[in-house]
């Protein structure tokens, strides 16, 4: 399992308590949560454990609960809780002991604000005058001036996270692609995402129509090395779902469709990217809008599978996608294939609140997808599946890139390629390791990758 920080423990505790409350409320009575009582359960009386006082701890948890149950309206799946932000008052540029007090003083000469002086044979930056332009760090021949970046800013390759005049983090919703990486790195739990855990439980309990869980292939191994996808399916059926379908089924279709797109565009385009990672696709549209037409027009495996399920039930069904990705919460709103979205972490909270021990359950057969579709969950899986549908003699270059910054850089370089007979296919994934490294996962990337490969090897479905 991933190392669990105090921030993660609190978040999971909140999810579990919300789920337990929702599962035990009478459906014929008032459905109103006593948030103050729930807050006191999570933060009991006594000395403060993490903040300046217990009152602030409770205020932050109260806001986390409100966001989790939808009482705080959000314009974006990812948001900053102002009271929780530590206002990291960091010195942006810092002179280290490596400073040689050289005669040329390029750092001082490059500073447009004249904020650098030499004190006791060492460069000194006056932080009250510093404009944080970074010219001094670039000019220093010894790399003696280092840049210190806040964790949330460093995690956001899109530059959607800024710091306001009070030094609190704010998210520019016009730039945010909902990758959720900032959620995972904030040491204070100040950044969180919209949860539909309450909506899913209520929908399952009211049960106005059938419910189908569409699970991402990265689910393999998420609940421990001894819990199989077949046992997870049994657990989902016990929660009230009528069926579980692998999103890898849609991945098989996507691989074939994207291969066709590549063959159609050879000679017309020099680059094409996958469409399965919504954060990557959104990043291209936001940062490089002139290149957005090179993104595959094929819907993602989530939406393709959702449409298959909707067609099967003549649209009289509630589809719930369960995966590792926060960006899928935003993607689901762009069509009517998926009604609700949960992360693996949120599903674990529901299982815990329901007192379902997955390891003790009998397996229920899972056989929707081929090995190719299941391998979409790890880096290289998409391009490998696409390549199998393309003629081996075709001039096709494949790049596998993870991390939004690296993805955009690779795309920029590849776009300069002159049109010709060949084509470059970029498999871009916002998360390191692919979907197995998503912000909603429970286990390490290495453990998730091994489990996905094992699950793929157990498929009895032949690629079409």
From TrEMBL:
This protein's record includes keyword Lipoprotein: no
Recorded superkingdom: Bacteria
4Fe-4S ferredoxin-type domain ranges (all copies): 121-151, 167-197
Gene3D superfamilies for the chain: 3.30.70.20, Fe-only Hydrogenase (Larger Subunit), Chain L, domain 3 (3.40.950.10)
MF-aspect GO terms: iron-sulfur cluster binding; metal ion binding
Keyword entries, A-Z: Iron, Iron-sulfur, Metal-binding
Signal peptide (from-to): none
Keyword Iron among record annotations: yes
PROSITE patterns registered for this protein in UniProt: 4FE4S_FER_1, 4FE4S_FER_2
Protein name in UniProt: Hydrogenase
UniProt source species: Desulforamulus profundi
